[in-house]
């Protein structure tokens, strides 16, 4: 078995969060936030369960991290998320000033760090994170693929 | 005195929310959400007070509206906000599928419906709201101008 590097190790923990989402029939996306190398927040998608449009994995993790650090500035933090952030979550990353973001699968239907648009190329924002995509990409994408496949099966499509 | 039209009337209510923010020393931005013509949610910026990076006026109003309607889909809703939405809030508008957005002042430092970027021109998103900016623009902008002026004065600049 291939030995995991540091980023893959943390992405595995984000995947663990994503699995919690699929267990409750939510689109499997998971996230964790580290502060100075320690995990301080976790989150998984709960949009349907909570009927809250903002309840995406990384959004939940960002709010938890703010609470934990008692600060809206998440400096010295790193975010790992299994899917490329949507405009809302990429925006929350900018607002919370997270300096480092690592994501798994690319998202052609909304991804804002390269797929639909790259927020780092838009002038005028007050923060630009360093972003690395494609960490355990296949595993992260497979989670989503399997989820939607099983949904279609249940619908008899 | 000039008679206010429908949009200006609602923007006045968003301004009332913005004033609540400046009263607690927060950047004065306010928002309201209507559902089928009735106000169902209000919000004002509380970022510093709450130390939560996501506590912007329209973001708070969106979460309240989801709670009220018990739905993450804010169809048949209209959002009025005194400042052009930032990437996070413009993203939350997309995620909650709000069809109509009206804002007051344009924001060259983050506005995502025309100033820094226009989300309606980015391909691949799953929703595109109708947006009208510049409603009571001067009044909305003046609120912010006065706020930052008094902050500088307090600092002795």
**Helix proportion of residues of chain A, in percent?**
25-40%
How far is the N terminus from the C terminus of chain A?
36 Å
The CATH architecture designation of chain A is 3-Layer(aba) Sandwich
Main beta-sheet annotation of chain A: 5 strands, mixed
Number of strands of chain A: 5
CATH topology name of chain A: Cytidine Deaminase, domain 2
* The number of domains of chain A: 1
What would the principal axes of the Cα set say about the shape of chain A? globular
The run of helices and strands of chain A is HEEHHEHEEH
Multimeric organization: homodimer
Helix count from the secondary structure assignment of chain A: 5
Structure overview:
Chains A, B: One of its GO terms (molecular function) is tRNA-specific adenosine-34 deaminase activity. Chains A, B: The active site is at residue 58. 2 copies of one chain form a homodimer. Chain A is 39% helix and 18% strand. Chain A is of the alpha/beta class and 157 residues long. Chain A has a single domain, classed as Cytidine Deaminase, domain 2. Chain A has a 5-stranded mixed β-sheet with strand order 2-1-3-4-5. The A-B interface holds A 47-48, 50-56, 59, 62-63, 66-67, 70-74, 86-92, 94-97, 108-112, 115-117, 119, 122-126 and B 47-48, 50-56, 59, 62-63, 66-67, 70-74, 86-92, 94-97, 108-112, 115-117, 119, 122-126.
């Amino acid at each position: 078995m291939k030995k995991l590097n540091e980023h893959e190790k943390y992405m595995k923990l984000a995947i663990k969060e994503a699995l919690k989402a699929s267990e409750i029939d939510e689109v499997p996306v998971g996230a964790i936030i580290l502060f100075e190398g320690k995990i301080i927040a976790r989150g998984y998608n709960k949009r349907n369960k909570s009927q809250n449009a903002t309840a995406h994995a990384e959004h939940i993790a960002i709010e938890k991290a703010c609470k934990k650090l008692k600060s809206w500035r998440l400096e010295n933090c790193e975010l790992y998320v299994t899917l490329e952030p949507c405009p809302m979550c990429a925006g929350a990353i900018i607002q919370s000033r997270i300096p480092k973001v690592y994501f798994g699968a690319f998202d052609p239907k909304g991804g804002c760090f390269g797929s639909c648009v790259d927020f780092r190329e838009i002038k005028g924002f007050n923060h630009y994170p360093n972003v690395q995509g494609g960490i355990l990409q296949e595993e992260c994408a497979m989670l989503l693929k399997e989820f939607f496949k099983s949904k279609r099966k249940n619908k008899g499509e």
